[in-house]
Every structure is written in C-alpha cells, then in structure tokens.
Amino acid sequence: MIKQYLNVLLAGFLILSTQLPSFSQHNPKPIPALVSKNGRHTLIVDGKPFLILGAQMWNSSGWPDILDKTWPQLKELHCNTLEVPVYWENIEKEQGKYDFADLDKLILDARRENIRLVLLWFASFKNGSSQYIPVWMKENTKQYPRMLNAGGQPIQVQATISENNRNADAKAFAAVMAHIREIDEAHRTVIMMQVENEPGSLGTDRDYSPEATRLFNGQVPAKLLSALKKKPGTWQQVFGFDAPETFSAYYMAQYIDHVAAEGKKQYPLPMYVNAWLRENRFERAGEHPSGGPTSNMIDVYKAVAPDIDLLAVDIYNRNYVQFRDLCEKYARPDNALLVPETGKGMLFARFHFYAIGDYNAIGVAPYGVDPFHGDPHDQRDKTKLDEKFAAIASNYRLLQPAIPLITSLQGTGKLKAAVEEEGLGEKLLHFSNYDLLVTFGFPSYKTIKEPTGRVLVGETGPDEFYLMGFDAKFQFRPRLGSGYSASEFIYVEEGTFEQGTWKRRRIWNGDEVYHSTLTPDGVILKVKLRGLQSDQYNTKPNFEQ
C-alpha cells in the first residue's frame, strides 16, 4: 500500500513539475512543492515526501554571530529544518540596494550542516505591527502610510490599502527570491518561505483612515461574496459584528498574496502565512492581530490569496483539548496543517504526536531554540541545547528515520496517535482488523512526574503494524465481528529505518513481549499478528494483561 501511494503521489508531483518555470526543469533536484490530492497534503523535497521536524530561532537571532553558535545545538536536537528570520530592514538598508551577505552565509552554513531552511520574511508585518520595515520607510510615513485607529491616531502598522507599501515589500521579496534561486537552485537548502509573520493590526480592528473608511462603507467585492456565498451589501450589512475584522483580512490577504506572487515569479517555493491565535482571552479583533489568518478568517484568505499555499497556526496553548481543536480548524481539505511555532518541554513533545499522527501535519517546530536572546536571568551553559528541548530531541531522533513511513500513511486513516495526559491513562485505537489499547503511567518506568507517554501507530497491512513512541504499554485484540476471539504475535521486531528500508536490531520475546511496553528512551517496533478462534488456544495469551 505504501509503495502504491508513493507512486501515485510522485506521479502527481511529476505532472506539477512540468508546469513550473523553465529554470527548474533541468535541475536534478526537483523544486520543493506542496502536493495536495483528494484532501491529502504532502510536502515534497528532492522528489520525496518530507516531514519538517523543525526548530525556530528567536525573533532577533537570525544573525551570523548567533547562528554560528547555534548549529551544534541543532545537531543535538536532531532537527532536519531550521526556521529562521530574514530581515527586510537588513537586506534593503538603502532603497533599491540589496545586501545578501548574511542570507548567503545562512544558506551556505545550513547546507554544510545538512539542515533545510524555512525562511521567515520579516517585512511589512510582524506580530501585528510593522517593526521590521526599513528605516527609509519608517521615516517617510507620507509615502508609506500607516493605519489609523478609531481615534484617528496612527499606529505602527503599515496601511494595507497603500500600493506604495505593498509594492515596496513585493519588490524586495522578489529580489530575495531571485537571489535564493541563484545560489540555492541546485541544492534546495531552502524548502519553504513564510511571507510576513503573524500579520494583522494590534490596537485596532481595522484601518480608520478616510480612504479605508470610504472602502469600508462601500460594497463588498463580488469575488469575496461569491466565495463566501453572501448576498451583496456594505461590509457592515454583509458581515455585521465581524465586518471590521473581515474587511481587514480581505485587504491583508490581498497585500500578502501580491508579495508572495511576485516572489513566486522568481522562484516558486511553497509559501505560507502564520497566524497569531484569536482563541485567547476575549477573542476581540485588535487584541489579537485583526486581519490575520485566524481561524474565523481562513475562508477569506482562501478566497482572495491563491498564491499562499497554506495558512499555518502557531500554538502555545498548554491544554491538549485546545491544541487538538486548533489542529482540527487548520487541517482542512484545502489547507495542509503546519505548526511552525509551539512551546517546548515534554508537554509539547506529546502534542507534536497529535499533530503528526491525527492531523497529518507536514511539520512541527518549537520556538526559541537558540539560547542567545538576551535574558539576563538565563545562567545556563549556552554551548549546549537547553534541557527544555530534550523531549523534542528524543522525538526527532526516533521519528526522523521513519519519515517515509509516516508520510506514506498520513491522510489514509492508518496512522494514529495515542498520547498520555493528566487524567487520561489509556487510549483505544481502531484499525481494520484489530483494536489496540495503549495504556500509560507505569511507575517502574517513570523518572519524571508529568505525563510522558506518546505513540504513533501505523497500520501497513491487515495484520502488520509499526509502533513508534515512548512510555506506553500496548495490547491488540481482533475487532468485534471479525470471527476471532484473541490474537497472538507472530513476531515483534525492534529496529529503525535506513534510507526507507526497515532494519531489524533484535526480536522481542519472553519478558519483552509479556510486558509489551515501549521504553522511556523510545523505540520503533514492527509487529505481525494473527487472529485466533476460541478453540485455537487454551490459556489467556501472556500479552493480554
């Protein structure tokens, strides 16, 4: 089944690649692409399915002096991708003159370290404001206007209705993409671009400038009405209470889409926009960045921003129900799930399994991997990876060899996650012929008090499974109605993958099978079963404890 799916997926990618600009057609390494088919989404890198097991730098850490000290820690993390900002204010310090020295060093160093890059374009919008625009824009607000709040006061957010703002950003971004193509087309170190960062307007629900207000009081554009299946009217008439935020989202999405489109003309890497959540506090536009790709504005972005390949979601919520709810909102048939920012620690190491196993995420990454962010109270050894990332490093070490298996099963219903939470000590998973009960919380295996159990389970055949995870006990039984009363192991192999091929390290038997427990250090098991009728066994099998 895996081979059949990969063949279909890669055939679709080959069709897509013939439609790309000519500069990619003769490269032995195909350009990275996001392939979507029948609601399934796969990131393709070097012609193969890829899963981002990433890390993101702090906002002001995309500089050579800091990056030079960070590469060894990324190796400790076992990540395959670094998400790192590139700054418009640094690249175009003088209008029309581009300095790519720092960008060049970043790409060359990542290539040396065999780490892929997702570049974060910190430009017109960053966390609901416009701090990263060049000085020459900051000092000329007449030509490059800002939004006004409801009191008529300018705020530090570039006006999205301004063509000057939009075109300046798009011109710089196009120059960046042309340069990346020039130095990286043969290597594909850079695999994806984030266009802006958590865009929107903090401090106002919309732009209240005279021109923006005139547009707000006018008719909603027909394109948006058609996409959302709304009747004609003014913004207030059509969207009511949500009118200011929807108005903001429409112009923000158009603005960013234009920037992305100009960049893709030079080098069409997959491009995304990330969201600052609205699911906090009072959920009021302006208290979160109004007009960003929040969960209630996804349809607006989909309607007017065709060059944005996906809308990503940054999740720091520490409640697993909220985490899963957000994944549910962003994992859509028309939108691949990417979680480019999360918290760190064991909690988010567990949450990553939900994203990958239950919501088919194309990537996850904790934020703030480098220790050089200027915290005067941080006295730890900054030459080593922060221990808060240890659990995520264990995830990445275990899962990275299994990426071909994981990506082949995502979206098929045959990859599932079981995760331990406070008050949640077991999880029952249903597969084609078997039910699998995963249980957690065994004192003899616990070295820390918080929940640690997390498992990905992949069904690769009617009686064959892979279990990948930590701190969990497992029991299989045939599904009710299957005609079988119990099951037994044909074999349980411990191993890993090398170049996509399963390599057995040892066979489990005796006590290991009796206890059927994934270890705290993490393990991958290949399990083969067979069903038993009641007359085929005399005693209760050892593994059904």
Could you explain the architecture of this structure?
By secondary structure, this protein is an alpha/beta fold. The chain is built from 16 helices and 23 strands. An eight-stranded parallel beta sheet has the order 11-10-9-6-5-4-13-12. The protein is globular, with a radius of gyration of 25 Å. InterPro entries: DUF5597, GH, Glyco_hydro_42, Glyco_hydro_42_N. Keywords: Glycosidase, Hydrolase. It comes from Dyadobacter sp. 676. GO terms for molecular function: beta-galactosidase activity.
Write the topology of this structure.
Blueprint: H1 2-17, E1 33-37, E2 40-45, E3 48-50, E4 52-56, H2 64-77, E5 81-87, H3 88-91, H4 101-113, E6 116-126, H5 135-138, E7 146-148, E8 154-158, H6 163-184, E9 190-197, H7 210-216, H8 222-228, H9 235-239, H10 243-266, E10 271-275, H11 298-304, E11 310-313, H12 320-330, E12 338-342, H13 345-358, E13 363-366, H14 390-399, H15 403-409, E14 415-419, E15 426-430, E16 434-439, E17 454-461, E18 464-470, E19 472-478, E20 486-498, E21 501-508, H16 511-515, E22 517-518, E23 523-532
Parallel strand pairs: 4-5, 4-13, 5-6, 6-9, 9-10, 10-11, 12-13
Antiparallel strand pairs: 1-2, 2-3, 7-8, 14-17, 15-16, 16-19, 17-18, 18-23, 19-22, 20-21, 20-23
Helix pairs in contact: 2-4, 6-10, 8-11, 13-14
InterPro entries: DUF5597, GH, Glyco_hydro_42, Glyco_hydro_42_N
Pfam families: DUF5597, Glyco_hydro_42
Domain Glycoside hydrolase family 42 N-terminal: 65-223
